[in-house]
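My convention is simple: the sequence line spells out the residues, with the fold written below as integer tokens. I include a record here:
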Amino acid sequence: MSPFFIYKMSEEKELKRTLGLVDATMIVAGSMIGSGIFIVSAAMARDVGSAGYLILVWLITGLITISAALSYGELAGMMPNAGGQYVYIRRAFGSLTSFLYGWTVFTVIQTGVIAAVAVAFAKYTSVFFPELNTAILEAGSFTITYAQLLAVASIVLLTFINMQGVQQGKNIQLVFTSAKLFALFALIVLGLGIGLKGDVLAENFRHAWDATSTTVDEQGKISIVPLASFALLGAMGATIINSLFSSDAWNNVTFIAGEIKDPKKNIPRSLFLGTMIVTVIYILANLAYLALLPLHGDPSATDIAGQGMQFAANDRVGTAAASMIFGNTATLLMAALIMTSTFGCNNGLILSGARLYYAMAKDGLFFKKAGELNSRQVPAFALVVQCIWSCLLCFSGKYNDLLEYSTFAALIFYIVTIYGIFVLRKKEPDTERPYKAFGYPIIPALYIVLTLAICVTLLYYKPFSTGLGLLIVFLGIPVYFLSRPKAV
């Protein structure tokens, strides 16, 4: 056995319920808040071109996320076991569908996001250490930089920490999530406090519902196209993938249900509290941006206000907004904040993801050793396998694509899972449900219809990335049947 597996495995060991409501809520919020909130609003401002529709898209994202979390509460109460969403899908639809979900989580949803978040961490660390951007290996279009190695090192470090026990992972999550929540609240309070003394916010909302799409060609020529009717709906449907990605990973807490105290109550509560906290923060953060920066801008402008939200340097709208508060030190302050945010985010993703593979292994649908626990009662082998694949993805150079089709694939399985509520209500009407889905059947049905509409819109406007997402899902079918003889 490799020295990396420093603890003796034992199938008789069980996961220990040591996480309370605060811990679970911190995992929900901490896994959701990464680097997206500091970046994606720039692209969204270009796509919809109005303050009103920008806030509306973030509000819709929040409502979608919260309604899904409230619906998941019923399933979490029924099945408070490690693996979460995988377990819910298996019970409603069988092993093939649940395997496809677990397959997609492992190949791209969880590991792809871990890789992308790690690269974002390294990217912002390079603000303090520019030499990290130096290439150490170049072979055609393939390049390895010190920043990529740092990204890998951060994944390995967090994996090692989480192999020491769930308490260590919990402590990391509590410290880093608390730090980034405090920093975000400070940015919001200062941003609104300073911004409201001027007229930027009022000017941004003067034509709040005049939507436009802004693009820039290779020669730097700006094209602004008014949006209305179906074109506006299409633009909103396409750009919402940015905010949905920034709000994703809330379901990760269900993966660690086997380690949460009184899970029938605490998982539904943590899902609601965590998603609500993040939704409020995201909307307030965008209002702070709009209070400090003009929405519209010019990519050739030499000052931050002239570039506006739309053309903030490298889409770093959070840094641009902070510059209006702190001046030249904003770049360093925001880099430190995003480093903190991404490091804490990845801890939650790494901690929770391994529990899903643990549940799959117990069903004979993943590496057998992934279903074993080490002497600290954590699935160490599952953590290591997740670590290896995530590290390899750090060198893929396809992060934007990974994020797009991982988010699309995640939406598909959110729909499947919430439809499972209807299936299980019919199949198992007498099963105990400590918590019932809020607004059933209307709220879950609205979620399914709205999310399906978003998926169809994404298929139309972004066929390449969404097509790859579907391809990855369907590739799991032959893998399932090839591994099926080994299943138990």
Q: What stands out?
A: Confidence is low (pLDDT under 50) at residues 1-12. Residues 21-486 form a domain with the Amino acid/polyamine transporter I fold (CATH 1.20.1740.10).
